[in-house]
Design goal:
It is built from 17 helices and no strands. By secondary structure, the chain is mostly helical.
Length: 407
């Protein structure tokens, strides 16, 4: 793909502000994936007796605020200065990571404390996510938005490839606590990038005026759009029952393949390698984004099925690469599709709904998937993920067929 033509995947780097933001975000994303991997390992192997249900509960508490705080998070992204809002949320998450790291290093951390920190971290992330996703439009403008979303996804999932591997080495060499400390320090990079942005080059969108009913206005807007409703239903299925990788990977690694910390971290890194192909596919899908969304759901179902049937560690790793391609294609395409289909003044609320629906189902899905893994085995839990992909694809196909019939 020619990076210089309109829609080229590297075009966002022509903007100084985006280059600065992307550099800081990459460092912070690596730290985030170090912490996520360390948190799952801490809960599964140090604070419980290999309980997938415990991992599911921590996930539920971390992602639940995306749904609980939905009436405020999208409105905040539409109403307030997004740069300042991001500085507040990023500083809060960095501080929480450092405190958790200190408690872990002192060997006084308990499972209930990890649950509290997961909920607090999730609350800060709930305000961060819609602001961060729509802030990309202020950095590059609508013309380069799909490519910027794809590059952001590559950065996030490239960090997913690097972070877990670093985490595995850290745990093996110096212990879990230092992984949390590393994440806390990594937030300095994104805070510095936000501080150094050229404010005059930002493409600020209209702000929502103060007043009641802003959240309900966003709900009515989405409910009146058949295309947006269909995407949200697909996101709910896969987000609730499919995007439970901490459970899938940790239970398969520990209970099925009896892997150590380094091998466990490597699996997450291998899955992330598949996301680069997914990012390029997403960036190229400029004409038929809904079709790409459908294919992402189908491939996700196939990948989870292959992973559930994998006889060895390395065949499981190969299946995770397929899941990585599908996950990136599905999530990145849904992001750019919904942003470009939404008027600028509503984007914060619509993207908050997107994040809330995609991650807010975790309080239901993660404990359920963890229970399935504990009761019927890790392979059965992966089949739940496969069913979510195929179910989302059926809903998308029906929505597309209905739209073609109306037209």
């Amino acid at each position: 793909m020619n990076p210089t033509r309109p829609g080229g995947i590297w075009r966002p780097f022509g903007h100084f502000n985006y280059r600065l933001w992307a550099a800081g975000a990459l460092v912070s994303n690596i730290g985030t994936w170090v912490q996520r991997t360390a948190q799952d390992w801490l809960v599964l192997t140090e604070l419980s007796r290999h309980s997938a249900s415990a991992v599911g509960v921590v996930m539920a508490l971390q992602f639940g605020p995306q749904l609980v705080l939905l009436p405020w998070t999208g409105v905040a992204a539409d109403r307030y200065d997004q740069r300042r809002l991001l500085m507040l949320t990023q500083a809060a998450m960095g501080g929480l990571a450092l405190v958790l790291g200190v408690l872990t290093l002192m060997h006084v951390v308990r499972l209930w404390e990890v649950c509290v920190f997961a909920a607090l971290f999730g609350s800060a992330a709930a305000f961060d996510s819609p602001a961060r996703q729509t802030f990309v439009g202020e950095l590059v403008g609508d013309a380069d938005l799909p490519a910027a979303v794809a590059v952001n996804s590559m950065s996030f999932n490239g960090a997913r490839m690097i972070g877990p591997a670093i985490c595995g080495l850290l745990i093996a060499w110096v212990g879990t606590g230092w992984a949390f400390m590393l994440n806390g320090v990594s937030f300095i990079a994104v805070l510095m990038s936000l501080r150094l942005l050229r404010r005059g080059d930002l493409r600020a969108k209209p702000r929502t005026p103060r007043g009641r009913g802003a959240f309900m206005q966003g709900l009515r807007y989405v409910w009146g759009r058949h295309d947006l409703r269909s995407v949200l239903v697909m996101l709910f299925l896969i987000g609730t029952f499919g995007l439970n990788f901490p459970i899938f990977i940790s239970t398969m690694a520990v209970k099925v393949f009896h892997a150590d910390a380094r091998q466990y971290g490597m699996l997450s890194s291998i899955m992330a390698a598949g996301t680069f192909a997914g990012a390029f596919l997403s960036a190229r899908s400029t004409r038929d984004r809904f079709g790409s969304l459908l294919w992402g759901a189908v491939i996700f179902g196939i990948g989870c099925t292959l992973a559930a049937c994998a006889p060895t560690y390395w065949t499981f790793a190969a299946a995770l690469m397929v899941i990585g391609v599908a996950t990136l294609l599905f999530t990145s395409t849904s992001n750019s599709l919904m942003q470009l289909a939404t008027e600028p003044a509503m984007r914060g609320r619509v993207m908050a709904l997107r994040v809330g629906i995609a991650l807010g189902g975790t309080p239901v899905g993660a404990p359920f998937v963890g229970w399935v893994a504990d009761s019927f085995g890790a392979r059965a839990a992966l089949m739940v993920g496969a069913a979510s992909g195929f179910g989302a694809a059926l809903i998308g196909w029906h929505a597309r067929h209905a739209a073609a019939t109306r037209n």
